[in-house]
Amino acid sequence: MNRGNGVLLLVLVIQLFLTAVVYWPQQMRVVADPAVPLLAIDPADVSAIQLADDQGNEALLQRVEGRWRLPAQQDLPADSALVERLLQVVAVEWHGYPIATSVAARQRFEVASYRFQRSVTFIGDDDAQLGTVFLGTAPAFRRIHARSAADDAIYSIAFSSFDAPAADNAWLDRRLLQVPEPQKIRSGDDFALTRLDNGDWRAGNGGTPEPRELDALLVSLANLQVDGVATEDQQRSLAQSAPAFSLDIETAGEARQLAFYLLEEEHFVHDRRYDLFFTLSAYDFDRLQTLDSGRLNGLP
Q1: For residue 201, what are the β-bridge partners?
Q2: Distance between CA atoms of 63 and 73, rounded to whole angstroms?
Q3: What CA dihedral angle connects 180, 247, 236 and 164, to 10 degrees?
Q4: What pTM was computed for the model?
C-alpha cells in the first residue's frame, strides 16, 4: 500500500468514527424505551380536547360533570366511546419502537407542527395544555403515523384519522334519543300504549297489541340513531314546519316527545329536551311511520 492510499484509509476511518459519535446518541434514543405512550398524561386529568385538520376545520370536546360534551353544539353529548378510545391510544397504549426521528420524516409522514393531517391537543384544569399529538399519513389499513409535539420519535400506531375527526358533528353521540324502556307511548289519536306492572302492554281501547307490531315499535325506539345535527338553514325551516308524526313517551324518569319531520326528501327528528333538530335515516323514519296502528290497538 502506497503512502497516498494509507492517508485516504486513515481519513475514512476518522470519518466513520465521527459519524458514529454524532449519531450514536440519536440511535440510542430511538430504541430506548418502546413501552411508553405518546403522551405521559393521565386521561383522568384531561378536561378538554381540541382537534384541527389540514383544511382548517376544528372541533372541541369538554368534560362536564364526568361526561363529554360539544360546547359548539349547545353542550350535546359526545360519543364517550370514541373519546375514550382516543385517550387510550394516546395516553395508555404503547406503540413499539419509533420508525423515524428526523425532520425530513416529519414532513414526509405529515406529523410536523406545520404539516399534519390532525392536530390533537389535550387540556387540563385552568386551561393548562397537557400535550399535543400530530397524526399524519396512513402506512396501512387502520394504521397511522403519529408524533408527540414534545418528541422527535415518530410511530406507526393502530389508529385512523377518521377516529379523530375535526368536526363537532362527527363526535355526536348518535344514541342520545334512544328510548330503551318506555312506560307509555302515544301517537296522537292513532294509538296509546301502557306497560302494565307485569311487563305486558295494554292499548288505550283495552286491547292487547299484536306482539310483532309492538316489538317493531319498541325495537325502533331502543335503537333509534341520529345521523347528525341539521344545518342552520334546515333548523330555521323545520322550526316553522309541522311534523309528519310525533310520539309522546313516558319513561320511569321523564316525559318526552319525539317529533319526526320530512323536509325536501330528507328526514329529521326533534326531541323537546333539546333545542336542535337532528338528521335521521330514511330507514329509522319509515319503520316508525309505517307502523300499523290497528295492530297496536289490538284490532284484528
Answers
A1: 195
A2: 14
A3: 10
A4: 0.83
Which residues have a Cβ under 8 Å from the Cβ of 6 and sit 6 or more positions away? none
Sequence-ordered list of residues with C-beta below 8 angstroms from that of 134, at least 6 positions apart, any chain? 110, 111, 112, 113, 116, 118, 119, 120, 146, 147, 148, 149
Which are the contacts of 226, defined by CB distance < 8 A and separation ≥ 6?
172, 174, 176, 177, 269, 278, 279, 280
At 41 the three-state DSSP class reads: coil
3-state secondary structure of 63: strand
Q: Write the DSSP assignment of 120-153 as a string of letters.
A: EEEE-GGG-EEEEEEE---SSTT-EEEEETT---
Is the separation of the CB atoms in 280 and 271 below 8 Å? Answer: no
Q: How many residues does the chain have?
A: 300
Q: Count Cα neighbours of 146 within 13 Å in the Cβ-side half-sphere.
A: 26
**pLDDT 10s digit of each residue in the chain, 300 long?**
455 555 455 555 556 554 443 344 433 334 435 667 999 999 999 999 999 999 999 999 999 999 999 999 999 999 999 999 999 999 999 888 999 999 999 999 999 999 999 999 999 999 999 999 999 999 999 999 999 999 999 999 999 999 999 999 999 999 999 999 999 999 999 999 999 999 999 999 999 999 999 999 999 999 999 999 999 999 999 999 999 999 999 998 899 999 999 999 999 999 999 999 999 999 999 999 999 999 999 987
Cα angle 135-173-132, degrees, rounded to a multiple of 5: 25
H-type helices in 109-191, by residue range?
none
Grid cell 419509533 is found at 98
Burial group, residue 15, by CB count within 10 angstroms (0-12, 13-18, 19+): exposed
